[in-house]
Every structure is written in C-alpha cells, then in structure tokens.
From TrEMBL:
Entry keyword annotation includes Iron-sulfur: no
Residue numbers carrying N6-(pyridoxal phosphate)lysine: K110
UniProt-recorded name of the protein: Threonine synthase
GO BP terms, alphabetized: threonine biosynthetic process
Source organism (scientific name): Deferribacter autotrophicus
C-alpha cells in the first residue's frame, strides 16, 4: 500500500514515511492510494476476534512496510494501558447502543489512536536511528492523549498548543501536569482554530519542517485515522445487527471531522453502515454543510463540549478528495477558496452525494444539559457533554431510520465535572488517574497566537 496527497503533488510514499511526514509536503493530507474493499463474508469472518486481533487484521491492509510480527507487538503494546480488556466496550441504553471509547489512560477516544501512534513513532525512529519533534494543536483531548502517548519516549519532543481558558479544567491539568523533559505545553491566547492555523502554517514551511524534523499527532496524521477505523468494525460486531450482517446508523460527535472520517473509510471498506450521523454543538459548520451545503467559517462559540468548539474541520479535505471523484486540482482550489473567502461552494449534485452517506444534527448548549439529565434519570448512566450531542442526534433521528443506532461515546464524564453537575447535580465517579491531578506540579508556557512566536519557541527548546 502506497500513500498520496489530497492535492496530488506527493505520491507513492510508503506507510512509515507517511507517518513521519504528517501533513504532506504540498500542503495536502495523506491518504491511501486505494481503499481495500472487503466482502460481507470477509467482514463476518472477523467478528469474533479480540480488539487487538481485529486491529491487526485491518491495519495489515494499509501497512505493507512493517512485518506482521512487529506490527502485532506494536498493536498489543498500544492497548495494555486500557482499563477494560475489551478496549472499546459497547453497552445498550434502551433501544440504542453506546460505544465507550474512553477507557484509555486519558479517558478520551483519542487514546485509541494516539497510544498506537506513539508506539509507532518510537519503532520507526529506532529503526532509522532518527528523531522527531512533534507539534500539534488541541481543543482539549488530543493534547493530553498525544502527550501520554509519547512522554519519555526516546528521540521525541512534543509541543502542544491549546487555547488558553477554552479547555476544561481536567483537560488542562492532564496536559500541564506532565513534566517529562520532552513535553512542552503552550497556552495560546485565542481559539482552537488559531492553534490549528499556526500548526498548519508551520507545516506548510517545508524547509522549517525538514530542518527541525517536525511530525504531526493531530488527525492530519493518517495513522490516527487508520487506528480509529478499527473501532467502527469492533462496535458493529457487538450489536445484534452483526448476527445478520444488516446495516446500522452510527452517530459521531465531531468538530474536526477526523473521528467520523474513520467511519467513512469503514463504510467504504464494506462495513454495513447506512448513515453516518455528524453530531455537532453550536459550532455547527458540518451540520450546515450537510443540511444546507453551507461550508462557511463563522466565529467560534464556547460551549459545554469544548473539544467540538471548532469551525475549520481539518480532516474535511480528505472527504473532499472522494467527493470530487479524486480530482486533486479541485481539492486544492477549494482549500484555497476557503482560505481566501472563508467558505466553499457546493452544487446540488454534490450535496446529493454527501447526503447519501451523511446526516447531521446540531445541539444547543441548553439542550446538551437536558440530554445528560434525561439519560441519567432514565438509565442512571452519566454521559459527558460531547456524548450528549451524539445521543441527542439518536433521539432526533431514531424514528426516521429503521436501522439501529450506535452512538460513539467520546470521553469520560469526569473530564467535564462542572457541566455534568450543572445538568444533574451529581458528580460522576472520578477515576484515580484524574483524582491525582489537582495536587501535581504544573508547567505551561503562554504565547500570543502568532506563527513566528511559536516557531521561535520551538527552535529555542530543541
């Protein structure tokens, strides 16, 4: 399997080089040159595998430059730190399923991919006797998961940008209490989109990127999307639909389009998915896109679900590549249009294609708390505000579609205590790994939202 850029100027690179490159050198995102399709019989043959066995079976289809024995060791090592042997347990709440993606070391879905990516980086760098300086932006969960994935690892330094005051207290503590010498937390005066813009601009400076051996842990890194494809298959296999290999709808709370993009690849691979439902909060650019063909950037609104407080969905470019029938020139022109005009135009024909795959909902801040309360009162089960956006989508759509629903639960409710208490008046049980954070020493660097300032900070600390 070889990889290419969505913008067409980078082609024929192997998986390990794609992992280290992160953002393609032409400014695009790296994707597999083909998506491996599986028949229903092939998919059904995987349904009794453990999570790790399933991950190995799927990842092998995308990785041809790492031996199977080595890949197996990397995969199994990546899920040792999870507090449930199933890695991603699936429960049933009434008439829908909930896939708990938060059993990793930082209690968020990002761990599923970033534990794998951290071990992957370590293996590749050791084989090449090389080093890597990782730079990434976070709206809350990516940062802590990335830091826990690479902290203390040989040959790696990590620089994480987060919007100052715009992540939850627990998310901030998870990042800033990691004092390993190779970890640098940067609080940026601005929004997550400002942080993401800085990272993309730095990666667009190819000379700076190569000189300083920069790599990415954001979901612009293909390995993150690949690792997330696995739990779509695994979650499906835990439902009754798997007995007859019939279709399901899958709801994904998303702001950056990375998580649901993995579902898109799973569907393209043959997994029986009817609709992928994009669940947004009030920062609803993806909802407006699906419902109205309106992909225009507006101001970011602070909500109870801060990891989704995003207007520029960085993984959207990968989907555009397929929407535009793999026309890299169209992708490049659309991304240039977005940068200049703050919007992309879509005709009715394209939107029909979009709606064959996706549906979408948007949840208000007030409704978010109502959903947390409804679920608690009905099932005595506590969900975080991001998951609540997904459950709201299920409640809105379950009478429209015949197929059963799986909602992706993306974070442990203890990471968002204030919102949960506001909704139900009860504190969720706090895992030991989170309880210990308040008393730990903290380290963080504050910078203005300026590309050159961040570049200078990186150079100073290499």
């Amino acid at each position: 399997m070889k990889y290419m850029s969505t913008r067409g100027k980078v082609k024929g690179i192997n998986f390990q080089d794609a992992v280290l490159m992160g953002l393609a050198d032409d400014g695009g995102l790296l994707i597999p040159e083909e998506i491996p399709f599986m028949s229903i019989n092939e998919i059904e043959a995987l349904k009794d595998k453990s999570y790790q066995e399933l991950a190995l079976a799927i990842m092998k289809k995308y990785i041809s430059d790492i031996g199977e024995t080595t890949l197996e060791k990397i995969v199994f090592k990546s899920y040792e730190a999870f507090d449930d042997e199933r890695v991603v347990p699936v429960i049933k709440l009434g008439d829908f399923y909930l896939s708990e993606l938060f059993h990793g070391p930082t209690y968020a879905f990002k761990d599923v991919a970033l534990q794998f990516l951290g071990n992957l980086f370590e293996y590749i760098l050791d084989q090449r006797n090389d080093y890597l300086n990782i730079i990434g932006a976070t709206s809350g969960d990516t940062g802590s998961a990335a830091i826990y994935g690479v902290r203390g690892k040989k040959g790696i330094k990590i620089f994480i940008l987060h919007p100052k005051g715009r992540v939850s207290r627990m998310q901030e503590l998870q990042m800033t209490t990691v004092l390993d010498d190779n970890v640098f937390n940067i609080a940026v005066e601005g929004t997550f989109d400002d942080c993401q813009y800085i990272v993309k601009e730095i990666f667009s400076d190819v000379e700076f990127k190569r000189e300083h051996h920069l790599g990415s842990i954001n979901s612009i890194n293909w390995a993150r999307v690949l690792a997330q494809i696995v739990y779509y298959f695994y979650s499906y296999f835990q439902t009754d639909a798997a007995d007859s290999m019939s279709k399901v709808n899958i709801v994904v709370p998303t702001g950056n389009f990375g998580n649901i993009l993995a579902g898109f690849y799973a569907k393209r691979m043959g997994l029986p998915i009817n609709k992928l439902v994009i669940a947004t909060n009030e920062n609803n650019i993806l909802y407006r896109f699906v419902k109205e063909g309106d992909y225009s950037i507006k101001n970011v609104v602070q909500t109870y679900s801060p990891s989704m407080d995003i207007q520029i969905a960085s993984n959207f470019e990968r989907f555009l590549f397929y929407l535009f029938e793999e026309d890299a020139d169209k992708v490049r022109k659309s991304m240039e249009q977005l940068k200049v005009e703050k919007k992309i135009f879509f005709n009715d024909e394209l939107m029909e294609k979009v709606r064959e795959v996706f549906d979408a909902t948007s949840t208000s801040n007030e409704r978010n708390l109502e959903v947390i309360k409804e679920i608690y009162e009905k099932y005595k089960y506590i969900v975080d505000p991001h998951t609540a956006c997904g459950i709201d989508a299920v409640l809105k759509l379950k009478n429209i579609y015949d197929e059963p629903f799986i909602a992706m639960s993306t974070a442990h409710p203890a990471k968002f205590i204030d919102s949960v208490v506001k909704a139900i008046g009860v504190k969720p049980e706090i895992p030991r790994g989170l309880r210990e954070l308040e008393d730990k020493e903290k380290r963080v660097y504050e910078l203005d939202a300026n590309v050159n300032l961040v570049k200078k900070f990186i150079e100073k600390n290499l």
